[in-house]
Amino acid sequence: MQETRCEVCTENISKYRCPRCAVRTCSLPCVKAHKNNNECNGLRDKTAYVTIKDFSEGNLLNDYRFLEEVDRKADNVARHIRRKHKPGTPHHLKFLMRMARQRQTTLSLLPYVFTKRKQNSTMFSTRDKEILWHIEWIFAQNNIKYYDKRVSENMVLRNILEKYIDPEMGDPVKKQRLKNYVSAGFKNIQIFMKVEKRSAKSVRYHRLNLQQSMKENLCGKYLVEYPTLYVILSDYCQEFPVQGEVQTETSGVSSSDSETDSSSSDEDSSSESDNSSGGEDSNNKHQISPEWSEGDIVTENKLQVCKQDENVQEKKLVNYVNEERLEGDKMDTMSNENKN
Fold first, then answer.
1. Exposure string (b/e) for 29-64, b if CB count within 10 Å is 16 or more?
2. Per-residue confidence at 302, pLDDT binned at 50, 70, 90?
3. d(Cα 241, Cα 195) in Å, to the nearest integer?
């Protein structure tokens, strides 16, 4: 058998043959040079044309494997599409929402395309019969975020926070970044959680108890994916209005406002009665009220003109509607006559 030389360097005897273009090479440098020079990827062309004269059992086997590969890829794509666009919520997430509802906590889940849904590691432990929460900590004064994964709902909130700001048990790196929280201590720290389903103009917060467990703190709350807790120093608590406290304050303000409104209305009514008892004519009110200026009189005249224009437009609209009704009645009578 005649030995063939390398087609790249033409010096050494060839050892390899390219599956795609059948070029013979002798070493790895020659193989790389061949791929760069000929822009060849080195992969066999499974759909290359083969004449009947050159067709063999090996070509038949290659075609059979190629068809199997195409069928397998098509099936994988179809399964991926069905799994991706499958309507509804998976069973394990429904079970998690039901377990949270039993604890009087409303848990809402977002579609999978959202980042918060992908980050959420909350799950229900069937062995321990408890929810393991994914918690986001926001230290607002330092603008730092930390995440805890699969925290037991029976853990006390203070114990979960110890690894961040406890002087003895905390992580040294985290304590260094949170020096102001560590120096303040737990006595001067409060935990807030944002109230969901409120507009951006009326943001409110829940005040959580450090001495209670996550289960007790989340009772009666509405969550989206997982709890986001704000760790706030006591000096900055006024920036986080609590829902119940703000309502009581606003109710007191509204009641005082109503009292002032009622007193002002009484004063207005008494002043009107005094004016009416004096026998003043409403048509001459511009002449007898010295407090009014000429600009006020002009603006009121303009308002009267606008009201007159509005009355004219309303009359025109009523006339137009009546004309349309008459034309409709005429068309109905004509159609009835044609039918008869």
1. ebbeebbeeeeeeeeeeeeeeeeeeeeeeeeeeeee
2. low
3. 10
Residue 183 CA, distance from chain mean position: 36
This model's pTM is above 0.70: no
3-state helix vs strand vs coil in the chain, percent to 5:
55, 15, 30
How confident is the model at residue 101, as a pLDDT?
A: 92
DSSP per residue, 163-189: HHH-TTTS-HHHHHHTHHHHHH-GGGE
CA distance 179 to 167: 10
Angstrom distance (rounded) from CA 214 to CA 160: 9
Q: What is the pLDDT of residues 115-138, one digit of tens each?
A: 898 899 999 999 989 999 999 999
72 has pLDDT over 70: yes
How far, CA to CA in Å, does 216 sit from each of 134, 154, 213? 16, 8, 5
Residues 6+ apart with CB under 8 A from 209: 157, 216, 217
The alpha-helical segments, DSSP class H, found in 91-242 are: 91-102, 115-119, 157-165, 172-177, 179-184, 214-217
For residue 278, the 8-state DSSP code is T
Place of tokens 């009581």: 248
**Amino acid, res. 311:** N
Write the burial class of residue 171 (CB in 10 Å: 0-12 exposed, 13-18 middle, 19+ buried). middle
Q: What ranges in 147-293 are assigned the alpha helix state H?
A: 157-165, 172-177, 179-184, 214-217, 243-277, 285-288
How confident is the model over 258-287, as pLDDT tens digits?
444 444 445 444 444 444 444 444 444 444
**136 bridge partner residues:** 147, 228
Compute CA distances 276 → 269, 272, 279, 280, 285, whole Å. Answer: 10, 6, 5, 6, 12
Task: Report the greatest alpha carbon distance in the chain.
Answer: 135
Q: What is the average pLDDT score of the chain?
A: 78
The DSSP code for 216 is H
